[in-house]
Every structure is written in C-alpha cells, then in structure tokens.
Amino acid sequence: MRDKRILEIKDLHVHFRVYEGISKVIDGVSLYIKKGERVGLVGETGCGKTVTIKTLMGILKIPPAIIPIGEAFLDGQDILKMSKKKLLQIKGTEISMIFQDPMNALNPVFTIGEQFYDVIRFAQNRLKKKEKLSKEGIYNKMISALREVRLPDPERITNNYPLELSGGMRQRVLIAMALVNNPKLLIADEPGTALDVTIQAQILDLMNNLVETKGISVLLVTHNLGVIRETTERVYIMYGGQLVETAPTNIFFEKPRHPYTQGLISSVPRFSGGKFAKGIPGTIPDYFKAPSGCRFHPRCNQAMPICSKIKPPLKMLESEHYIACYLYGESNNKNE
Amino acid sequence: MENQIIRMNNNLLSVKNLIKHFSIRAGFFQQPIGYIRAVEDVSFNVNKGEIFGLVGESGSGKSTIGKILVKIYKPTKGTVLFKGKDITKLTKEDLSFFKKEVQIVFQDPKSSLNPRRSIRSTLEDPLIVHNIAKNNSEREKIISNLLKMVELSPNYMYKYPSSLSGGQRQRVAIARALTVNPSFIVLDEPTSALDVSVQAKIIHLLQGLQKEFNLSYLFISHDLSLVRTMAKKTAVMYLGRICEIAPTEKIFSMPIHPYTRTLISSVPVIFEEERKAKPPKQSCGGEIPSPVNPPSGCAFHPRCTISSEVCSKKIPDLLKVSEDHFVRCHHVSINK
Fold this sequence. Notes:
The complex is a heterodimer of chains A (336) and B (336). Chain A has 336 residues and is α/β, with parallel strands linked by helices. Chain A is built from ten helices and 13 strands. Chain A has helices spanning 49-57, 84-90, 112-124, 135-148, 154-157, 167-179, 197-214, 225-231, 249-254, 259-266; strands spanning 5-18, 21-34, 38-42, 65-66, 71-74, 77-78, 95-98, 185-189, 217-222, 234-239, 242-248, 315-318, 321-323. In chain A, the strands form two sheets. An eight-stranded mixed sheet of chain A has the order 7-8-9-3-10-11-13-12, with helices on both faces. In chain A, helix 6 (167-179) packs parallel to helix 7. The longest helix of chain A has 18 residues, at 197-214. Chain B folds into two domains: 1-116 and 170-231, P-loop containing nucleotide triphosphate hydrolases (Rossmann fold); 248-336, no CATH class. Chain B has helices at residues 2-10, 62-69, 92-101, 109-112, 119-129, 136-149, 166-178, 196-213, 224-230, 248-253, 258-266, 272-277, 332-335; strands at residues 11-26, 31-47, 51-55, 77-82, 85-86, 102-105, 184-188, 216-221, 233-238, 241-247, 318-322, 325-328. In chain B, strands 6-7-8-3-9-10-12-11 form an eight-stranded mixed sheet, with helices on both faces. Classes of the chains: A alpha/beta (336), B alpha/beta (336).
C-alpha cells in the first residue's frame, strides 16, 4: 500500500515566452511521491522549485508559460490535462498548499472564521446532498481543526482578523486550513522560513505529527538543508531547472555524490563551529542562454567534454539513490 | 593596574545601560499612548579587532542596537562610548571622524543600494564627502581597488544594482562600508537574504577583510551556526534585554539561560556530529510577547520550563557565572 505513488511527474518541461525570448526554466524534471511519504525538494533561488509546484497546483499562468512536454499524475489523473473545472475541484481537497509567508496568504478583510468556512464548504460541493454538512457541522469541523493545531481558544480566533494574530498563529491557521479536507498531498513551500527558530521548530513538529497521523504525503520545498534533514525521508536536489540527485535523506547527507550537492552541503556553516567551504564559484545560469548538456558544467570543477554536450540521464547508484552526472556510471566506478 | 590600562586601550566601543523606547502616538494631537520597549538596559564592550555576535529572534532589539551605534537612532538613556567619546555628544569634527570610523552593512542589499545610481556613483560619495581623494582619476583608482577587495571586477563600476545578483549587491554594500577605512562595522544580518552557497562566499570575504584590516564587527544575526563561526563573544537577547553573554564557545558548549538552551536546541542541523553537540531538544510553548507590554519580571517566564514565583515578580540581574560568563536568570544554580 505504501508503495502506491500519489504523485508522479514525468519529464516535465516548462518554458516562458517573454519579450526577450524563450526562457527554458524547467528542463525534464521527473519525481514521484509515495503514499504517506515526506519528500523534500531542495534548491537555491531561481532553480525552478516554485515553478514546479505552481505547475502542480495549476496556478501557473499560461501564457506566458508553456508546457511543451510533461505529465503530472495525481493519484492516476493527469493534472496538466485536466479541465479548469476539474482542477478547481481537486485544489484544496486532494492537493493543498502551505505558503511561505503567513502574512500574505490570508485575506486581511475577512475574519479567520469566514475564510475557514469557505474552505470546508467548498469541499462539500463534490458530495451528494445527503452527505453534506450543515452550517453547524462545518463550524464544529472548523473548531476541531483549529484545536488540532493547538491554537488556544479557537472560538475566539474564528472571530479575529488575520492581523490580530501573530506569525506563528497565522501559520497554524494555514496548516489547519490545508489539512481540514484530508488532502492526499500537501505541498509546503518554505513553511518556517518567515518565522523565528523557536517558532519554526514548533510549527514543523506540529506539521509532522499531523501529517503522520493522517497519512498525508508531503512535498516540502525549501532551501534550508537543516529543515530537510529533520523532516523528510527522501530528497530531490534541483539545479538550474534540472534534477541532479535524489536519495533517502540520511544517505544524501552522509554521502552526497553530485559535485553541486557536495558544494552545497559543504557551504552550510556547521553548528559545531569550525571551517566550512568557500561556496560554489560562479552564479546560477541565465535561462535564456541556459548551458547545454548538464546545466551545472560551467561551475563544475570536474567537468568533462561530454558534460557540455549531452544532458546526463538519472542513473541509479543504490536503491532510490539516483544521480545525473557522468562521473558516476557503469564504465566509471572509481569514484565509488 | 597595568592590566587594566591595556584593557582600556584595547577597548573600541563600550555600551552602558542602553535604553531605547519608541513612543506609539495616536489621535489628532499625536499624544504618546504607550512605548515600545525595544532595548532595555543593555551593556557590552567590543574590543579592537574583535567580532561580537548579537543573537536573538525578531523583536528582540538587536537591529535597534545596531542602528543606535551608527547614530540612525538616538538612545533614550544610557551611553555609547566609541574610542572613549560619547557618540551622542560629538563636536562637528569628532562627528566627521566618527562617521569615517563606523559603518553599517544592512540585511537587504536590494533596498540598501540606490537603484538609480551606478555602483561608481554610490561608492564615490563617501570619498567626496570626506575629502579622501583629490580628483576624478584618483577616485576611480580607489573604487576599482575597493571592488577588487570584495572580489568584483572593476568593470562593475559602471553597472547599476538591478543588473547584479544578490551576492554581488551585498559585495557592493560591503565595499561602500569600506570606502572610508572604518575600524568598526555593524553587520546587520548581512547574509540572511542570500542562498547558502553565496552566503559562504560573503562570510569568507568578511572574515578575510577582518583579518586584513584588523576590523571590529558587531555581527547581528539570528543564525546561530553563523555566529558560532564568526564571533568571539556572543550576547543572546530576548525582548530587549541581554539574557546571556559569554565567549561564543561557552554559550554553545554550556548554555545556562533556559532561553539560550531552547534557542540552541531549536536549530535544525544536518550532520550527526552537530546533533551530538546540541543539547537535548527543549521546546518551549507560546510565542514571543510584544515589547509594548512585556511580561512582568523575567520576560521569558511565561515560556520557561523552570520558572517559579520570583520570576514573574522581579527582573533578574545579570549574574556572574564565571569570569566572562554572565546570565540573567534567577535559577542559575539549578541550570549549572
């Protein structure tokens, strides 16, 4: 049962057609999430994380975006080929999202109760008339959801406007909203970044507990490697719109293989003090003139002639540890 | 006696009982209706060539202190001595000297650089104001040297901030601080807007410059791992007060204040060795109270696990634990 894939993206390409030309942002991303699994998607600013999840949520503006190739199956249905009406139905009920900034994700002119009510009522549209909840039922469901995220005095909070709550409380409300309809997949876009460390620790603990008890799959998108380490089971690393490595989290941090991943991990300042690497030379690629082949090759210190010619395919090293790099392969095992 | 004199000479900046309250005004006559107690009774010393770390969550008053030190804000009470002179009572000549000696680098280079001025024009102003270079060609020479110092090509002189990446902009902001050859720089979260691999480069640059010119830094950050690698001494702040101050090694190896412990144990870390270095996870409930109306007694007592009756009544003093380790807690002996 656990091996069932809730989400499967196959060879996704996303381009943007703008005045300056065509910006080829996402270049062949494939990933999957199993039922109940917590998966991390890591990458630095501008690597295409946000575009990937926007595509999944169907909130990517088309045009200017174009999706020339690609499939994204949510529980067997292709999101990219869905009608708008169908897509609207699954948003918030089968797939939901927690945004980075809790300050901007809530509407300031409605109370928490009004916004929350809509979220639950909307999900009722798909049900038959008999199964629908009454007004009171919706209210009770809302209160219990707010209690689940350990908000004190939920009855009072429903009458509050977002600006009357602190950042941590707003993020709790958003988590409650995202999980109230028991979605199959939760996309969390940097859920703790806008918060302080002690609050971030509370929020991540809370999210993990809820997700585990409800058996919801999570795609956690972040650039904070510490958060990835403490919350996910498997991780995908993106660079310049390509996936460069994927592995179970503990293996990934112990034995990073791709030159980019190695550079990234060694750049993190150690909590135990001491020296850390000097970062990765160069800057992220310009998507209008994206480097051919492996997009990391201009910054890579182990680049070979083939790297600039053909995009390296994802190769399996161990079970669930895949890497897109010519340094590792059948013919070249000396690095292992 | 001799020892004392050496210490006196070595002392660059000393802050004594600094207090900053912002008044909240409302109504037609803009009468003050309350005060934001941003900084309450803060004292510390920074020696020549030393990096002093200031850690705390948002709203703890760390940035306010930084801004007081560069005379953006006026302190409500207390003194700040720079090279033995009170910075609030400087003569015109002393002020000009002070402005050459003390500089600041802000968190967000996007908003701290003027988008309508070229890099050259931004870097040129201090040279003209302080009469450092006589003519145009001399200024140009100094500017290209400055850009080389921050590892940028001199061609960047003619560019505008919009065509630079975040890391490059922050390098320009650092170059701007260096134009007047300061001896003390306030670094207000200089890397929190940057990616890890870029952050690593900027931190190495700052460390290199510090050694080269024997600079002193006030390093303000919420990232504990960074403070650990950068600072020699560290003060932890909570709601405007310093709750623990000690050499950085001691803060991390034997934190005593319950807030410091919570803060350190909340940091998400990556490596096994770091997990071992961390104290066992201590979550604290609740949120950071508002500085408008802070809790009575010790500001941390509503969230503290070991608080007792005295904590809510009396503000604890900064108690000496060992020669250079001070803690503001009533229960120092329990924690030790």
